[in-house]
Amino acid sequence: MSFQRACALAEVPDDEPLAVEVEEYTVAVVRDGDEVFALQDLCSHAAVALSEGEVEGGRVECWLHGSCFDVRTGKPSGLPATEPVATFPVDVRGDDVFIDTTTTLNGVTPA
Q1: How far apart are CA 82 and CA 68, in angstroms?
Q2: pLDDT, tens digit, for every residue of 44-97?
Q3: Whose CA is closest to 86, among 23, 55, 30, 41?
Q4: pLDDT of residue 79
Q5: Mean pLDDT of the chain
Q6: Would you call 50 helix, strand, or coil by DSSP?
Q7: Angle 77-72-13 (CA atoms, 0-180°, nearest 5)?
Q8: Domain-by-domain residue ranges, the chain?
Q9: In the chain, N or C terminus with fewer CB closer than 10 Å?
Q10: Exposed e or buried b per residue across 48-86, where buried means at least 16 C-beta atoms within 10 angstroms of its C-beta
């Protein structure tokens, strides 16, 4: 694994994703309680930024058509999306968030 610093933990809001650049990908960093997750910042339905949506109940909602994705698995939990988005390993080290984009947790190849 090749973790890269993505952002400070304090930069990640509780109710919306934060878009960060890690390697060649834009990643949506999401908080769910005390946990932090990373998803590819691209809705699998309409190819728009998930970081412009909202986070609630362990899901991130796409702002354009309302597709919802589980922050842990990347699986869609609300139509119109039917394909998952890539999820990446996260390591919180002190006050910083590190993400590994060289592998995915759910086996989905990032677009």
Answers
A1: 10
A2: 999 899 999 999 999 999 999 999 999 999 999 978 999 999 999 999 999 999
A3: 41
A4: 87
A5: 95
A6: helix
A7: 95
A8: 4-99
A9: N
A10: bbbbebebeebbbbbbbeebbbbbbbbbbeeeebeebbb
